[in-house]
TrEMBL record:
GO cellular component labels: plasma membrane
Protein's name in the database: ABC transporter permease
Domain MacB-like periplasmic core intervals: 22-78
Any Pfam family matching the protein: MacB_PCD
Record flagged with keyword Calcium: no
TM ranges: 21-42
Keywords carried by this UniProt record: Membrane, Transmembrane, Transmembrane helix
Amino acid sequence: MSLYQSFRLAFQSILSSKVRALLTMLGIIIGVASVIVIIGLGNGMQTYMTESFESMGTNLITVSVMGRGTARNVSDDDMY
């Protein structure tokens, strides 16, 4: 089977079942678009977090309250 015949057969198959071909193309488009959006969101979050950490500087210690009963003593070994 030549390349021309293969393309002709594929084109006839697409035209014979238009709804199936449309749904297949729609599924592929939605899948590719969702992957692009997820990658974009991931890159955006990474940039945001990097900028947030860089804006804090290197001489900053953040302390947050965990609630009652979760206190822990800090020793000199924890500092180094």
